[in-house]
Each structure stands twice: as C-alpha cells, then as structure tokens.
C-alpha cells in the first residue's frame, strides 16, 4: 500500500512538473519568437555580427533593444520596431554609466533600479527607473536622457508608495 502511494505521488509530481513547463513555454513563446525575429532583423539589416542580449522596451510602441558587436568588435545598440532597425555605436552616445552618474548627481538618495535604451517621441534615449525615499514613503521616477548627448528630456513621477 505504501508503494502505491509513493508511486502515485511521484507520478503526480512528474505530471505537475510537465504541465508547469508546458504552461511556462506557452506563456513565453510569443516573447521568444519576437526576440528571435529582432535578432534576425538586426543581423540582416545592420553591421552587427554578434548579439549579446535582447531586451524589451515598452513605451509609445514596443521595441526590442539588441546589444552586440560588429565585425570589428565595436559595441552597438539596435532599436528594433518590427522590421525596422536603427543602429548606433555605443561610442557615439553617452554610456549607461554616464546616465547613472547624472541621476545620482541630481540627488545622491536616488536608488537606480534599471537603465535601458528606449524611444520617446521619436528620440533615441536612455530610460532610467529610480526610487527615492521621501517624507511619507518612497516614489518611483522615470528619467529620460538623450542617447546622443545625455541631455535630460523629461522626468515622470509615479504615485507614492
């Protein structure tokens, strides 16, 4: 009797694991397909030869941000919108670290959560999500800085938590 219970429990665990894996894959299939399509667009329409990573930026439109290198090893960033791709060499704009430093110089109490390239009103930029503790809680901010020169474009304040 104990063996039946043990075997039944093992079978149930295996079936649950298979179901969870299937569920996970079903949820992420569309995102993975879009990332693969972005990689294909980048390798076919830009000088980028190797791809390091792909991230998703959701703003006015959804973009896939592809990080990689060209055949000479120069780092590049590509903003992909469907079949359209816009490539910039990392050296042609301000760096992730420069933007982080700018946010911290504004207020050393800022806690940076994420920095990623994006697009706002047709301008290629860095989006910085940061948190700042205030008198009655904390507040998240989105700061937008031009990719080409680091100039601040806008800051959006979220509700206090």
UniProtKB/TrEMBL annotation:
InterPro entries linked to this entry: Cystatin_sf (IPR046350), TseB-like_dom (IPR041401)
Annotated transmembrane regions: 6-24
Gene3D superfamilies documented for this protein: 3.10.450.40
Membrane keyword on record: yes
Domain Cell wall elongation regulator TseB-like: 38-80
Keywords: Membrane, Transmembrane, Transmembrane helix
Protein name (record): Cell wall elongation regulator TseB-like domain-containing protein
Source species taxonomy: Bacteria, Bacillati, Bacillota, Bacilli, Bacillales
